Amino acid sequence: MGTKTLFLTTGMLISGVCNTILNKYQDMTCVEDCDDPKKSKYFEQPVWQTFNMFVGETLCYILVYAILIWEYHQARKYVPLTVDGTLTAADSEGITVVEESENNVLTTKVEEELTGQRVFLFWLPTLCDICGTTLMNVGLIYTTASVYQMLRGAVVLFTGSFSVLFLRRRLYAYHWFSLFLVVLGVSIVGMSSILFPSAEKKIDSNSAHTSKGSTAIDASIGVFFVLFAQIFTASQFVIEEKIMEKYRVKPLRAVGLEGIFGLSTVAVGAIILHFAIGIHHPGGFFDISAGWNQILSFRQIWITGIAICFSIAFFNFFGLSVTRTLSATARSTIDTSRIVLVWIVSLFLGWESFSWFQVTGFVILVLGTFIFNNVIRPPPCFTVPSPNLQEIEPLLSEDHEHM
């Protein structure tokens, strides 16, 4: 592994782990009645955390803007080329003709530039991102960081199913077997958190850590919200792929666009929800004034909030760089390793206890994900495809970070 690859891989892992750990740190921060464990209240503001995520994604657009300026000056040095069977050319209307060769068969693919009003197509996957991320933020409040990270692996199941239904992709027999393993692994991880709930620690700058009770009901709520969120996340992936099949757009620019759309949508939506629901439920998820006061009043919350924004930006940058340098499958494999690191850090910090039941579910989940992404090659007898459907590409577990 080269120095550049090692640097990108390490950066992706560290920024990804920091994102999950910092969000959980915020959830565990006591904001009221910290001296009385029975009355203690914690920072439970999933809408503000979603807002944080989109701030981080918007930061990516600064880099996009710098790249566009550089490419513009570079493009002025050269005369546009015409298609001769091997080259790519773009005309004044923003249409790109690409000739690809696969299995000695030359095919022509026409792509349009994503310009003008077409950029608003990314608002639809952004809405899915908002719903999925907010639901996952709620789930993280009620479950541990490692269980949360493991349950997110269920996105493979929904994305694979939606790819067959809406993108007409082809699943081999081993794909279906891997999805079965994913369901089994997720089920075991979910049950481990319900049957053996961990006692967490509250974080208070004025006192030592004390236990925060976790019940089977809390764990069940957390598991439900995280799993339900994967439906929206999978929908986002499928819609993004559909858009990027037709229009030519760089991944980093797509992240930046979703950041801008998400930031504006969450800002407007939060105000509406505050007056519709929040003012009737003080201190609840949609009481944005309470969340804002808590952020300003507790240094550890606003500092970690800023850190989360940058961890999101760096995670997207490193992740997309790994995809370009290695492959989408490599990025998927590396990102799966983040689950292990989140678990180890949580154990080291004393946020949860070791469970062999959870480890078993994690191993099965990872095995299913690796098989689905062709990291582990199945026997030839399992490579019989479903008829009349296109072959499915190795699935990128997370096109960009959602929490």
From TrEMBL:
Transmembrane segments: 51-70, 119-142, 148-167, 174-196, 216-239, 260-281, 301-322, 334-351
Molecular function GO terms recorded: pyrimidine nucleotide-sugar transmembrane transporter activity
A Gene Ontology cellular-component term: Golgi membrane
Pfam name, any one: Nuc_sug_transp
Membrane topology recorded in Swiss-Prot or TrEMBL: Multi-pass membrane protein
Subcellular location: Membrane
Major localization listed first in the record, in broad terms: membrane
Entry keywords, A to Z: Membrane, Transmembrane, Transmembrane helix
Protein name: EamA domain-containing protein
